[in-house]
Amino acid sequence: MRVFRDTIGIRTEENQQFLDVTKQVQDVVSRSSIRNGTLLINSLHTTIALFVNEFQSALLDDLGGVLQKLVPRRDGYFHDDPRYSDCDRSNAHAHLRATLLGRPIALAVADAVVLLGQYQSVILAELDGPRDRKLQVQIVGE
Amino acid sequence: MRVFRDTIGIRTEENQQFLDVTKQVQDVVSRSSIRNGTLLINSLHTTIALFVNEFQSALLDDLGGVLQKLVPRRDGYFHDDPRYSDCDRSNAHAHLRATLLGRPIALAVADAVVLLGQYQSVILAELDGPRDRKLQVQIVGE
Amino acid sequence: MRVFRDTIGIRTEENQQFLDVTKQVQDVVSRSSIRNGTLLINSLHTTIALFVNEFQSALLDDLGGVLQKLVPRRDGYFHDDPRYSDCDRSNAHAHLRATLLGRPIALAVADAVVLLGQYQSVILAELDGPRDRKLQVQIVGE
Q1: What is the pLDDT of residues A18-45, one digit of tens each?
Q2: What is the signed CA dihedral for C52, C53, C57, C62, rounded to 10 degrees?
Q3: Which residues of C touch A (CB under 8 A)?
Q4: How far is it, in rounded angstroms, from Cα C129 to Cα C17?
Q5: Is 90 exceeded by the pLDDT of residue A109?
Q6: A128-137: average pLDDT
């Protein structure tokens, strides 16, 4: 059993932005030389989200609309009110969207490849950018 | 350390449908002969969702209501508009519901059994059926 | 490869309550003596949720507001209606909130520490308390 760990650094460019990070994740798997095992990806941040779906521009615009409807950008949040919070970024919406949308990702590595369906991508949602972000990747296997 | 991998094939019968796949997942674990380790389940599709909760008909009807409220079936989605998308299935709602609801599942295998609580089931939500679907299952352990 | 498993018992005190369980999870990792590997946390219940974000009081009050907006406590649920369900707890909202919010958690263990970002906590959301709850934790590694 071997353990390989690496960090993916990403500079986001917009306040809210979706990026396909599948290739960067696969690159870590390739560098690990582990052929079969368990892949974990965790963002080290609380205002980005990782999820798996199709990376298509129109669909991601729709997702942006759903997020704005379910968790509006401004909605009288306590986290954005200096009486209740010392956070000065007014980013409650970003935390809340990340909480609904994001999750630590666990995927299989099979014959040195991340096991995904034909239309599946690992997608990073920047929800409070632009920022420098880091994803922690770990592979355990042989 | 051993790695066992198998695919569960499922024919869904309705456009939106919830299926309890716990037994099929347990069957893969039993076939693997791995007694303790990490179980990963990933749908290879972008319009179904996997989640863990109670498989009860009334509750799943309620979940259908919540999904329709949060992500209506028709809502002027870009993904369903031929000017913005070449997808001809008008299934934006299915992708978006899968994004909110679904996740790659990681569970423990303990003494050859999938570790779940008394009322927990692994549930597949078909969101754009009927279709032939595949779940990829991997167990790493001993 | 070693496998270590333990249960975290938690007594919740309110009907809906957020608890930071990061320390209890780290304690299991420390007891395991496993330095590198895969950590799984699964609630054994269907009306609590586990997620990862910042544990800040104002933000968690905001999350309570979002949950109430998206999945109101009373909304004519079938699960709460004795004609459709034999559940006498009227807790459909708790199942549905857990389904949207919660997930089995998979995280990396690196040099005997749970890999989390500076502001990330493992958070348990009690959605139908007060109750005695159990979290199942497993670490596979070396």
Answers
A1: 999 999 999 999 999 999 999 999 999 9
A2: -100
A3: 1, 36-38, 51-54, 56-59, 61-63, 65-66, 70, 100-101, 103, 105-108, 110, 115-120, 140-142
A4: 8
A5: yes
A6: 97
Mutation site, A22, A51, A56, A142, interface B, largest B CB count within 10 A:
A56
Contact B99 A51 (CB under 8 A): yes
User: Does B74 have pLDDT greater than 90?
Assistant: yes
- Kindly identify which residue of chain A lies nearest to residue C117, measuring between CA atoms: A44
Q: Please tell me which chains touch C, using 3 or more CB pairs under 8 Å as the contact test.
A: A, B
Question: Can you tell me which residue has the tokens 């699960």?
Answer: C79
Residues facing residue A5 across a β-bridge: A138
What is the Cα–Cα distance from C115 to A140, expressed in whole angstroms?
A: 14
Contacts of B95 (CB under 8 A, 6+ apart): A53, A54, A59, A62, B46, B47, B79
Query: Starting from the edge strand earliest in sequence, which strands make up the sheet with C37-43, in order?
Result: C2-11, C132-141, C37-43, C105-110, C113-114
pLDDT digits (tens, 9 = 90+) for A78-96: 999 999 998 888 999 999 9
DSSP characters over chain A: -EEEEEEEEEE--SSSEEEE-HHHHHHHHHHHT--SEEEEEEES-SSEEEEEE---HHHHHHHHHHHHHHS-S-S--GGG-TTT----S--HHHHHHHHHH---EEEEEETTEE---TT-EEEEEESS-S-EEEEEEEEEE-
> What type of residue sits at position C25?
V
CB-based contact C19:C130 (threshold 8 Å): no
Residues in chain C with pLDDT < 50? none
Q: Hey, how many other C-beta atoms are within 10 angstroms of the C-beta on C112?
A: 14
DSSP string, B38-72: EEEEEES-SSEEEEEE---HHHHHHHHHHHHHHS-
Q: What values do phi and psi take at B2, rounded to 5?
A: -120, 155
* Residue A48 to residues A7, C114, C129, Cα–Cα distance (Å): 15, 19, 30
Section B84-110 average pLDDT: 94
- What strands lie across the sheet with B132-141, from one edge to the other? B2-11, B132-141, B37-43, B105-110, B113-114
- Residue range B45-57: average pLDDT? 97
Q: Is B31 helix (H, G, I), strand (E, B) or coil?
A: helix
Q: Token pair of A21, please?
A: 């990070």
